[in-house]
Amino acid sequence: MTSPTPGHAPTLLLVDDEAVFRERLARAFRERGFEVSTAGSYDEALGLATKESPELAVVDLRMPGRGGLELVRALHALDASTRIIVLTGYGSIATAVEAVKLGAFNYLPKPADVDDLLLAFSRGPGEAAQVTEDFQPPTLARAEWEHIQRVLTDCGGNISEAARRLGLHRRSLQRKLQKYPPAQ
After folding, report:
1. For the chain, domain boundaries
2. Residues in Cβ contact with 141 at an 8 Å cutoff, skipping those fewer than 6 apart
3. Each residue of 115-136: pLDDT tens digit?
4. Pick the CATH number of 11-122 from 1.10.10.410, 3.40.50.2300, 3.40.50.1820, 3.90.190.10
5. pTM score, two decimals?
């Protein structure tokens, strides 16, 4: 179930505490014909899933309060046929294994876009993405730059808030932003 069929809009529950990221993904799924519900917390997501069990769910691992793994367990208990993907910026093998044990269909690291998620839904349960021979991972400097830009965008350009979220002093962040982006 990777794309809608004529006359049927798959239901998707999108759960992430970062509102900008959540709404950006929701809009992209809606543009592809999905019926999307969004939630920013465990309680909100469970309330929506209890009213109408979604066919698909994308769940952030780390959220304030009860986290994504607890939500995976609850959603799987509600309806074992719901295909759940755990999405996180704090990935590790241990949490990926735990998520799949609790009922997640798959696990993806952030940043992921709607195409990455659709591909993950189309693969088998727990099946990792295929890495091509010509794949060149970004340099550490480039990955840092992209992460800073993503956080800054999520903060609406507010450097003080972005610095707080990144655990940096505001002036340190300003110095990093003055540099040109590193080469891929």
Report:
1. 11-122, 140-178
2. 182
3. 989 988 887 654 544 433 444 5
4. 3.40.50.2300
5. 0.65
- CATH code matching the domain that covers 140-178, chosen among 1.10.10.60, 2.60.40.10, 1.10.275.10, 1.25.40.10: 1.10.10.60
Per-chain mean pLDDT for the chain:
83
Phi, psi of 130 (to 5 degrees): -80, 130
3-11: list long-range contacts, CB under 8 Å, 24+ apart: 3/32, 3/33, 3/118, 4/32, 4/33, 4/34, 9/33, 9/34, 9/35, 10/34, 10/35, 10/55, 10/56, 11/35, 11/36, 11/37, 11/52, 11/54, 11/55, 11/56
Pairing of strands 11-15, 83-88: unpaired
